[in-house]
Amino acid sequence: MAENIKFEVVTPEKSVVSEEAQIVMAPGSLGEFGVLIGHTPFFTTLKVGIIRYKDIKGEERFVFVNGGFAEALPDRVTVLAESAERRRDIDVERAESALKRAQERLEMAGAREDIDFIRVRTALERAMQRIKLAETRR
Amino acid sequence: MATLKDVKTKIGAVKKTKQITKAMNMVAASKLRGAQSSMIGFRPYASKFAEVLGSLAERGGNEANQLLAVREKISKINILLCTSDRGLCGGFNSNLMLKAESFLKEKSKSDIKVSFACFGKKGRDWCRKKNLEIASEHVGIVGGRFGFNVAVKAGRKLIDRYLDNEYDEVYVIYSEFKSVAKQLPVIKKLLPIPPIEAAEKSKEAEKKFLAEHICEPSPSELLDEMLPRNIYVQIYSALLETSTSEHAARMAAMNNATKACNDMINSLTLAYNKARQASITADLMDIVGGAEALKG
């Protein structure tokens, strides 16, 4: 692979990733997609999930994204996410407590009207994805 | 006339005050640096977001979206008032409240009900004093460290209430950070979302480029997804700007206070020395007088 694309993940708080990548695989809301150099301009929403990319040395890296948008241009990919973190930065304890909380709320959801089912489910999804990704850490 | 001892205690007191204002100045300076760095961290996201939103709005002019539609009759307004939690920052908070007050006056001519959502203690207290309706209050956010989720939570609530017809319009009042020396109170309409201006003219070429994007799902669906987020982005940026302005305003106010202390110490020291000299002169006169009397 001769050329690399510029890959960026920005959240409102900071820029999480900004580097060159050989390939970027992201979870689009209508299905996962991969971007190589020379991609057609493309814009999509993202699901809660994991972006995989290969850095210039060909090593595979992972970034958790909490939804958002991705824009692919021939020479770069930009992801706008509400929150995102690299695999090594995931706070497992926090994710686990979030998972527990979400599970508890999910159990109560049947009985109580005031719990927003969709929101609890996305919280659950978020926590599970984070934990899953963190477990693949060496 | 003040006695020597009085003046001396006064000087001591002013010196203590000066220590405090100086310390507050330095604390504000370091907090300002922190706030500025989170503002800078937010910039890439905000600019990219605005760019994408602009080009999407251009393509999928979606009048059907409820957040864009202007309502015919406006009878209930909500104002998001961003102020600081603490005082000692010069005219910072009163400027913001003046802005709110003049806006209120303008609206009170017609029969409109106004309620407030307050970020910051000062604004809340002001609303209470004026007997204005407070829809929600958030204390302990402005001026500290806060994440994007704060804006999301507040924004979601606002949108829900707006869609439930509890409000017909939503405004935000915040302080725009122009520079360390200048902060401007600003009022902006949040909902209905004012027509989105596509990025500046200089980006003409880029716009053309964006227009060829493949979108998944369709542009109008994407826009529906992005509009609520646009509100969150606006709120977050308003909060960041207000925080930064607060620290800058406090820094300036404390700097002035320290200078005023210095002036006061100078004039008091002068008074002290004068009083001291006067008493020495009086003593000398006594001694000389006594000596003359003995000679005689």
Key attributes of the depicted protein:
A: 138 residues, alpha+beta, ATP Synthase, domain 1, Single alpha-helices involved in coiled-coils or other helix-helix interfaces, 2 domains, five-stranded mixed β-barrel, elongated, B: 296 residues, alpha/beta, Pyruvate Kinase, Chain: A, domain 1, five-stranded mixed beta sheet, 6 helices
Give a verbal description of the structure.
With 138 residues, chain A is an alpha+beta fold. Chain A folds into two domains: 5-87, ATP Synthase, domain 1 (Sandwich), CATH 2.60.15; 91-135, Up-down Bundle (Single alpha-helices involved in coiled-coils or other helix-helix interfaces), CATH 1.20.5. Helices cover 27% and strands 44% of the residues of chain A. Chain A has two helices and seven strands, in the order E-E-E-E-E-E-E-H-H. Chain A has a five-stranded mixed barrel. The longest helix of chain A is centred in the C-terminal third of the chain and has 19 residues, at 117-135. Chain B has helices spanning 4-59, 92-108, 121-129, 148-163, 204-210, 219-295, and strands at residues 76-82, 113-119, 133-138, 169-179, 182-191, 214-216. The model of chain B has no long low-confidence stretch (mean pLDDT 86). Chain B is an alpha/beta fold and 296 residues long. The A-B interface holds A 10-15, 28-30, 40-45, 69, 71, 78, 80, 82-83 and B 38, 41-42, 44-46, 48-49, 52, 56, 147-149, 151-152, 209-210, 212-217, 222, 225-226, 229, 233, 236.
